[in-house]
Amino acid sequence: MSYEKVEQAKKTIIGTKQTVKAIKSGVVKEVVIAKDADKRFIDPVIGEAEHNGIPVSYVESREKLGRSCGIQVGTVVVAITV
Length: 82
Description:
By secondary structure, the protein is of the alpha+beta class. The protein has 4 helices and 4 strands.
């Protein structure tokens, strides 16, 4: 389900640092995180999302999440923006 959301999103932000920055600026409506990601990369994103009341959903694979964004490498986090 979340892979499809990412594919259909008009605007996304890819990556941990960029996602945290976007959450702080108030433009994120949902965050999608790969379950196979290292905890140290996703914890700051989860914390910031929870603090700002942004829903977080999970997918199984970094590689498939990256492909859903149209990139050739895996990604840990994708933010869907407004």
